[in-house]
Design goal:
Layout lengths: L1 H41 L2 E5 L5 E5 L5 E3 L2 H9 L6 E4 L27 H7 L3 E4 L7 H7 L4 E4 L5 H14 L3 H22 L7 E5 L12 H8 L3 E2 L13 H7 L3 E6 L11 H11 L8 H4 L3 E5 L8 H12 L9 H13 L10
Parallel strand pairs: 3-4, 3-5, 5-6, 7-8, 7-9, 9-10
Antiparallel strand pairs: 1-2
Helix pairs in contact: 5-6, 6-11, 11-12
Length: 355
């Protein structure tokens, strides 16, 4: 009996000792694992192809960004990541109604020629710009400060899904990016499905911002025209933005003319007066009264806010109605625009965008 008691007493001592050991070791062990996991997360690197097809590495998490383009800034706000923005281009403060919460962010100069010293002072993790501008000098200037340049366009519809997905991964907004992509492609897919019914595509002259500069292959304007069911008369060129002559357009005799126009603070404009004047000038060009589009009044002006960029689906919706009114009679581009602004941009619908 005494031996049994001694054995039990010894076992109790071992159990207590083991318990004390676990209490000491577990925090160290699991604390170490937790610290390792956090370190691993902090050192995570995402690799992707930018708009130029180059392989880019970005270290996560990204805590601060400078955004040079309004297209990228709009995409960032659409996925609810505007809180990460440390600096913007100089044009943002000039459109305060559209950018109420971003109008006072530090300006780093124009999107074409930013001030690299100002960018460095803001100490962002990344800078987002277009594929072509600024040129390679941006990488050379900012690499010495340890700032990564990310070139994503956000103005070509067919690349928008991939670029928004990349943005969501970089900024830890994958869920919000997915919601934007789903909304966007649901509307675009509806248009593409109905276009399967058409037997013809009207010939369209698409003029960019400068007079007689049209949109050829690989341009955002060409993508919009084709996705809306049009046949771009400049599709045979080998460059994205060729300059043509008035006579060339006259000979091509397009059935529809689309003109892109940049109106200052279009979101704040009441009435389409400025757009009407542009349309009037186009229809009054010498000898253009012989063009079918002018004769039939099928000349349309589209403001840059919905011309390519994150809101290109709005522009495509307007084009689809203009090109094929019979099958898109119930399509409501203005309602679509209102939904986008309220849901993804957090602002009310207003402004003038087409005429």
């Amino acid at each position: 009996m005494r031996n049994d008691f001694q054995i039990l007493n010894t076992l109790v001592k071992y159990v207590v000792a083991a318990g004390v050991l676990l209490l000491v070791v577990c925090p160290i062990l699991f604390g170490g694992l937790t610290a390792y996991a956090l370190q691993r997360q902090a050192d995570e690197i995402i690799t992707f192809k930018d708009a130029n097809g180059r392989s880019i590495d970005v270290r996560l998490p990204v805590k601060g960004i400078v955004v040079l383009t309004s297209d990228a800034l709009e995409a960032i706000r659409a996925i609810k990541a505007e809180g990460l923005v440390k600096g913007v281009n100089s044009g943002i403060s000039k459109d305060p109604l559209f950018w109420p919460e971003l109008k006072n962010r530090p300006s780093v100069g124009s999107w074409r020629n930013p001030n690299y010293e100002l960018i460095a002072e803001l100490n962002p993790d990344i800078v987002i710009g277009y594929a072509g501008r600024p040129g390679p000098v941006m990488e050379r200037k900012l690499s010495s400060f340890g700032i990564q340049v990310v070139r994503l366009d956000f103005y070509k519809i067919l690349a928008l899904k991939r670029e928004v997905e990349i943005l969501g991964q970089i900024l830890n907004r994958e869920k919000e990016a997915g919601e934007l992509i789903d909304w966007y492609h649901k509307r675009l897919d509806l248009i593409q499905k109905r276009l399967q019914q058409i037997r013809y595509r009207p010939h369209v002259y698409v003029e960019s911002y400068s007079k007689y500069h049209t949109t050829g292959p690989c341009s955002g304007g060409n993508e919009m025209c084709v996705l809306a069911g049009g046949c771009n008369i400049a599709e045979g060129f080998s460059i994205p933005y060729p300059e043509v002559t008035p006579e060339w357009v006259l000979v091509k005799n397009p059935q529809v003319i689309i003109k892109a126009a940049a109106i200052t603070n279009a979101y704040a404009v009441t009435g389409s007066g400025p757009l009407k004047e542009i349309r009037k000038d186009i229809m009054a060009r010498p000898a253009w009264d012989h063009i079918r589009a002018v004769q039939e009044g099928k000349v349309y002006v589209m403001e840059s806010s919905i011309w390519t960029g994150p809101r290109a689906i709005i522009g495509v919706s307007y084009m689809a109605r203009w090109f094929h009114p019979d099958i898109f009679r119930d399509l409501d581009p203005e309602g679509l625009h209102r939904e986008y602004l309220e849901r993804f941009q957090g602002i009310e619908y207003r402004g003038a965008f087409v005429d």
